[in-house]
Amino acid sequence: MHRFMWRVMLLLSVLPVVSGTGWGDTVPTTLKGPPFSDPDVVIDKPESWRQQPIRYRAQESGAEVVLLLDQNIYPGLLPLVQEYAKKHPLNVSVREGTCGPAAEGINRKEVDIGGSCCPAAREDRLPGLRWHTVGISPMAMLVPAADPVEELTSEQVRAIYQGKLTRWSQISAVGEKFPKDLPIRPVTRLHCKFRPGHWRLILDNEELFGPRVNEVGTILDMVVSVARNRGSLGYVENWQIVNDPKHKGMVKPIRIDGQDPRDPEALKAGRYPFYWVYNISTWSADNTVNPKAQQLVRYLLDNADRIDPALQLVSSAELKKRGWKFKEDELVGEP
After folding, report:
1. What global pTM score does this model have?
2. Which domains, ranges and CATH numbers included, belong to the chain?
């Protein structure tokens, strides 16, 4: 999106509105972006696109179901996909990518099931496409393992990324534990800028981030950058990387607003403020629907509580019990 539009959004973000946590709300007092998009808004596509069937790539010829999953949800879902394919002899092709390629594969109608770590944006809501939420996982705020930081408030996190807090000495709880002039080094990875949720739960858009942020391109770059630089603060969605023995002694997740990201109760109740979403999609139109893909998705949803606990997933079934808002299978609002 053009920087002019981001500036318009920034102006709107400071206008008085009623606070809330539904798909269309903003919370100007915290500068939080929208958690979800409107599930009832579907973009228009030409008739030629609507009539196009699913066509697999040549290298996937012979497959009965094709999936393209974002790198963050791939580790959690792959074992269940393989388990289902073995139980119900099924020729399944599973590719790992990022949200962008997954969305492109869906738009080109090359896959039966797409997967992303972000809630669907308006542009993702294609005719005949249904979204299903497997669950959510906490977005860990990271600091170097040796740094004396164990907790921040969400307001402090936002102030750091805005550039309003620039030195650790400005934060009383930890300031005396650092050298007086040690700067805070905020690290960002501003992926999927037009999709709601994920890092936009910290600050709504890139224009709100201060000039001193250090932007990196990959999840691994984020972890390595935080680990190597004292005074750094970063965030990461992928708990497989956080738990990797190569990184576990280098970085550590911290509590936010007194809530530990590894406490499932804090996430279920909505007390831990930063999270990302395991979303998958299937086709429902007559010329694109694949009953075998739909059966596989149902298996993934019904067995989400069996995903490796180290990945910190809270299943949709648990979220429904705690009052999170759903439209059919899709998570569309906070409790």
Report:
1. 0.88
2. 47-137+277-333 (3.40.190.10), 139-268 (3.40.190.10)
